[in-house]
Design a protein that fits this description.
The complex is a heterodimer of chains A (189) and B (179). By secondary structure, chain A is an all-alpha fold. Chain A is built from 8 helices and no strands. In chain A, helix 3 crosses helix 4. The longest helix of chain A is centred in the middle third of the chain and has 44 residues. Chain B folds into 2 domains: 131 residues, no CATH class; 45 residues, no CATH class. Helices cover 82% and strands 0% of the residues of chain B. The radius of gyration of chain B is 18 Å and the shape is globular. Classes of the chains: A mainly alpha (189), B mainly alpha (179). The interface between A and B is large, with 96 and 110 residues.
């Protein structure tokens, strides 16, 4: 089979079955690595690291990275379009449905429950980022309590929290950029 | 045509500054899509995230498709989707081509350690804004808390939690006599 067609189909399959965001694509990519031999597990780990340190949804970054390694720039476009294709179709259908039935009491009742769950999931995602960023969970086992708190990160978090509340008009990107610079200047990693 | 191009450009800008996936994108979406362009409300964004949890695909991309299609139908959905993924293609291609050890560079590691701190703070601010529309009574507060705890301390799949919450919402309205 043509490599491009195969790339498109493999990533479309991943996009169709990975439910719940970028990290959900990882088990599928592991399987893809076993079945196609396009990349090794080690390369997959490198890809995850690169995806985590670049902007953009992780699943999309992974597709671009794998596609580029196999077939250059056109490969990266084909794999990415393949990944988003199934969800594009599904969401367009769901959006039409919500437009037509959004005002029905049943849909409203379901959404009443969904919204609270959605906010809970987003809060949980925030907590999981905070856990690895502000605290060093690994230090707990060693009895090194000082190492448990990531002091530099916590100070920055408190300052950012205050500034984002005080200067609501400032674009979030300005805070992100400032944090990147502070991370480099004060050796955050 | 103007709106379709605008959707592409705004979502390309959002894709270029989203560090760490769909959840980290929420604060930027609130600023651009809700506050600046008024393409959707905070409540609608919460709905899109909920639906994005139980449908296939990447949440950030699903949200782009939703907003795009709300504004300009199918062409709008396609345009916003292509917009949100295009920066990734460009950036990843450059990194793959020139910087094989990109993620290992000390400057990159330090910058991203700083960015992650900011992402936590921004996510908490974003959740705060969503709560006003999502947690409106005792039951929704309980759903919020239960989902938060289950998602933090068990490996319950997000899609299952969302579906269960939808059923609870439906049952509560039925028992309450609203249906």
């Amino acid at each position: 089979m043509d490599l491009y067609l195969k790339l498109f189909l493999e990533f479309a399959k991943t996009g169709l079955f990975a439910i719940g965001g970028g990290m959900a694509t990882i088990p599928f990519l592991t399987k893809m690595s076993d079945e196609t031999g396009w990349f090794t597990h080690m390369e997959l780990l490198n890809m995850i690291a690169v995806s985590e340190s670049t902007p953009g949804p992780i699943g999309v970054n992974m597709a671009s990275y794998v596609g580029y390694h196999l077939a250059g720039i056109s490969g990266s476009i084909v794999a990415t379009v393949g990944l988003v294709f199934p969800s594009l179709i599904i969401i367009l259908v769901v959006a039409q449905f919500l437009k037509r039935f959004g005002d029905s009491p049943i849909v409203k009742a379901v959404m009443y429950g969904l919204r609270a769950a959605s906010a809970g999931l987003i809060a949980a995602a925030g907590i999981s980022v905070a856990k690895v960023t502000l605290f060093n969970v690994k230090a707990l086992g060693t009895g090194n309590w000082g190492g448990f708190l990531n002091i530099k990160a916590i100070i920055l978090a408190v300052i950012l929290f205050y500034l984002t509340k005080k200067y609501k008009k400032v674009h979030p990107v300005a805070f992100l950029a400032a944090s990147a610079i502070i991370g480099v200047v004060f050796n955050f990693a | 045509m103007g709106e379709i191009i605008k959707l592409f450009l705004v979502f390309a800008r959002i894709g270029a500054v989203t560090f760490g996936g769909g959840y980290a994108m929420l604060p930027i979406l609130q600023r651009e899509v809700v506050e600046k362009y008024h393409w959707a409300t905070n409540d609608e964004l919460t709905d899109y995230y909920a639906v994005g949890q139980c449908t296939p695909g990447v949440i950030a991309v699903n949200t782009a498709t939703f907003v795009g299609s709300k504004i300009k139908g199918i062409p709008g959905g396609i345009s916003a989707t292509l917009g949100v993924v295009s920066p990734s293609i460009v950036i990843i291609t450059i990194i793959a081509a020139f910087l094989s050890n990109f993620a290992e560079l000390a400057v990159v590691k330090n910058a991203f350690a700083g960015i992650r701190v900011c992402v936590c703070v921004l996510i908490f601010n974003a959740v705060w804004k969503l709560l006003k529309g999502a947690v409106i009574d005792k039951l929704t507060f309980i759903i919020f808390l239960v989902v938060l705890l289950l998602s933090s301390f068990t490996d319950a799949a997000p899609a299952n939690l969302v579906v269960a919450a939808g059923i609870v919402g439906l049952a509560a309205k039925k028992i309450g006599g609203a249906l």
